Amino acid sequence: MSFYSSLFISICITSIGIMSMYLLLGLSGIFSMGQAAFMSIGAYAAGLMAIKTGLPMIINIPIAIAVGMLVAGFIAIPVIKLRRDYVALVTVSFGEAIVALLNKLTNLTGGSLGLNGIPRSMNMPLAIVIVAVCLYMVLNFKKSKYGRQCLAVKSDEISAAAMGINVRNSKMLVFVLAGGFTALAGAMWAYLTTYVEPNSFGQKLSVEWIIMTFIGGSNSLSGSIMSAVILKILPEILRFADSMRIIIYSVIVLIIINFRPQGLLGERELSDLFRWLKKKVMGSHQKEQKGGNS
Amino acid sequence: MKETILQVNDLTIKFGGITAVDNVHIKAVKGEITSVIGPNGAGKTTLFNMISGIYKPTSGTVQFGGRDITGKSSHMISREGIARTFQNIRLYQGLSVVENVQAVLDARTDYNIIQALLGLPSVRQKDRENVEKSKELLKIVGLYDLRDEKPSNLPYGLQRKLEIARALATAPKLLLLDEPGAGLNTKEVDELIALVREVQERFKMSVLLIEHRLQMVYSLSDKVYVLNFGKLLAEGTPKEVQNDERVVAAYMGEDD
Predict the structure, then answer these.
(1) Domains of chain A (ranges plus CATH)?
(2) What are the beta bridge partners of residue B61?
(3) pTM of this structure
(4) Binary contact (B116, A177; C-beta < 8 A)
């Protein structure tokens, strides 16, 4: 597999991870700081299935998603009862616990050596299809009653409940859904790299996703995905700078956070931006015409 | 024979050593406007918070339409048919004006998550119906033209009206209004009185009102309860309460 296609697929995978971050952070205000752990769960579930049973990817990926959603269901029980800062604590420790667990369960997971020999079944067309389906679903979710209820809960839990919205159910649903999306991303990763180890998806990745979501604007789906793509490509572009690369990367991130604390797109979506540009272009066009007449 | 819609019996809540509401009983008659007045810190909002399920009372019962709803969770009580507005306006800032109303209708719309994720036509149809219903409600309170604004861009008086529209979206039998006149000027209060009267007659609702502005209380209410330091001080028609010496003393304080 060429470097570019594998970079492209890894961008697709990150985009799916960012979609789950958008569901949690942007729509629901659930500050999950260990989301990458669900990627581990998805990757290990798919990898183990592939190695131990030899079943094809088409079966293993849905199983990985189901496992991710199941685990998310358990973690959601404390998460939906807690306030924002405590949610962050629970999810951080959950992320660390998963890494430790994968290291210790040597018989099942191969410990720190990781899982080897997963077939390389992921390819570019498939990744594009999966990303498109995920995006379609997340957009539908946002537009549906669930999306509005999540935003209502994020804005004000007390008045959401007083108007008949079941706050806990709404948080539970979004957490499980995000767990499923992230597990899918993990399974795709396993089938791309053929190899997973406990530290592949640690705290560092969770934090990277949070950075990506905030830089694009946590309230904007297209903004978050856009920044995921940019921040994923950026290190490759900066390769010429060698050891300076991480510094340049950090400086760019800091500059953006400093001058656009609400994120690149804020609350707007890319489609709004196009509409605004169109209006601007049309507007100036009309002005010119008027100027010509007088 | 007048039918009772809400009956609050011997309701008490203690926060640590403080008894915020002490053995209060209140009765709201169906189709009428009942008011609760009292000085600051008298426990009016706490009483509302217990009726709407935000606080669980230490003792006592709340009966609504003949059913015991004491200690039920907030969203269940909303589904029983009690809607409320808040003293310190609590709109959904992340949503537009029309979506604020729509989100409330959404809680009563039945399609499941799979249908929603797939974006089925039936889902879109139901969403469109809810948008239309929301627009109707916005027309009633006079916010139709501002439906795409963010709530934070509206002046205070209009935010109050949006809260009322949102409460109406729950199709309530009883509407709890928590100081709807707070922070409004005289003109806005008059508009609000007219609006409360209109919706009450139009939807055949009962209203329980907390208010500081006696002007509003006396012109709207059928019955008035007076709270002071968490205890019930007096009850009666606006006229009776107005002439009650204890009420005057509690309300006007040392002025007299």
Answers:
(1) 3-293 (1.10.3470)
(2) B9
(3) 0.89
(4) no
